[in-house]
Amino acid sequence: MFLLDAAAILLCLAAILGLINHHLLKLPFAIGMLVAGLLGSLGVLGLDALVPALDLAPRVRAAVLQVDFAKAVLSGMLSLLLFAGALHTDLGRLKAKAAPILTLATVGVVISTAVAGAAAWLVFGAVGLGLPFAWCLVFGALISPTDPIAVLGIMKAAGAPKELEIKVIGESLFNDGIGVVVYAVLLTLALSPDGGLGAGEVSVLLAKEVLGGVGLGLGVGLLAERALRTLDEANLEILITLAAVFGINLLATRLHVSAPLAAVVAGLLLGNRGRQTAMSAGTQSALDTVWTFIDEALNALLFLLIGVEFFAIDYSRSDYLIAAAVLVPAVLVARLVGVAVPVAVLRARLAIGKGTIRLLTWGGLKGGISIALAMKLPEFEGRNAVLTATYAVVVFSIVVQGLTVGPLIRRLTAQR
């Protein structure tokens, strides 16, 4: 009953705040939901300060903490959102830009993780928190993935050129899965009692997560495609795609492979080959309608949850807030290095347009996955500092970068 109650409350809040955003704030949909959630949270704090007898803030905080944000995102929303994004991505254009996309999603994420981790170690040490370097690297890993859903909506709304759009969206689809894998490896290292694992063990863990996820996505995607070929009934075919995503989540959890990568691979397969070989025009239209609705609805709930998760943050510690404020630009620098190094290497043999580094850096929005990974961290000294810094980076990224990346795209496009 609690799950149904929570779902009902969140859906009603999303609808009400969506109306308020549409008529008053007039912000892009996802950003508006986050801002509305934040304003609501601040309103509760203000009312609690004015009328302490209501004891409102502690009650709301207790209710928010009952929602397992990490589980909701990592075990539910993420695979559905990644599948929906991949379902509408042109595999042909993705293949044409495969080298920069895969390099940014792998080498770029590793570089960004190292730079952000080193910056966190220096910043946390400077404010007297002194987090071990291993935990700072975990922070670097959880803050490096970009949010494909926010990126996808903003790229389309801004009318980005197809060449730029596919690079940004393609990287975002894959670096979530890679980021989660790097996070899992570094978390294992941080928790290792002897201070680390051997190179062979790390390699095996990486290979299992990545190759296992890709294999699972291919297997489930091919099975679903084979099933779709045998019928022409839109409702049942949509049900099969939903079952594929939930099946991926179930199997990935038990096989200890990457569910995000599996969801992306299955979505690309069904969204491209599946459309050509197994779906009528009517089914394709119905499928797009349903999955667009799932995408938008879950996106609204996710960004609303990010806004209300303000109550899960320890904003009473000035050292946490100072560290968070310094790490916001530091993470941007880490993203810049993680983009600039691969692009500089690739530019010698690939046609990479002017302004690509700026766009990929500023357009690499952080999102719910970073907060979910931070909340999934086990208890250790400094956990709340990491969570506070993560939340600050994500909110800045979505609100400030999200509202300004459109004008940046238009300016870069006009210069070409």
Q: Give the low-confidence spans.
A: none
Q: Determine the N-to-C terminus distance.
A: 56 Å
Overall geometric form: globular
Helical element count? 17
**Range of strand content:** under 5%
* Average of the residue pLDDT scores: 85
CATH C-level label of the largest domain: Mainly Alpha
Indicate the CATH architecture of the largest domain.
Up-down Bundle
Explain the overall architecture.
Helix 14 (318-347) runs antiparallel to helix 15 (356-362). The chain has helices spanning 2-25, 29-50, 56-66, 69-87, 91-96, 98-126, 133-143, 148-157, 162-191, 199-229, 234-255, 259-278, 281-308, 318-347, 356-362, 368-375, 383-415. It has two domains: 2-65, no CATH class; 66-415, Up-down Bundle (Na+/H+ antiporter like fold). The chain is globular, with a radius of gyration of 21 Å. It has 416 residues and is mainly alpha-helical. The mean pLDDT is 85. 47% of the residues are buried.
How is this fold's topology laid out?
Blueprint: H1 2-25, H2 29-50, H3 56-66, H4 69-87, H5 91-96, H6 98-126, H7 133-143, H8 148-157, H9 162-191, H10 199-229, H11 234-255, H12 259-278, H13 281-308, H14 318-347, H15 356-362, H16 368-375, H17 383-415
Helix pairs in contact: 1-2, 1-13, 2-13, 4-11, 4-12, 4-13, 4-16, 6-7, 6-9, 6-14, 7-9, 7-17, 8-9, 8-17, 9-10, 9-12, 10-11, 10-12, 11-12, 11-13, 14-15, 14-17, 16-17
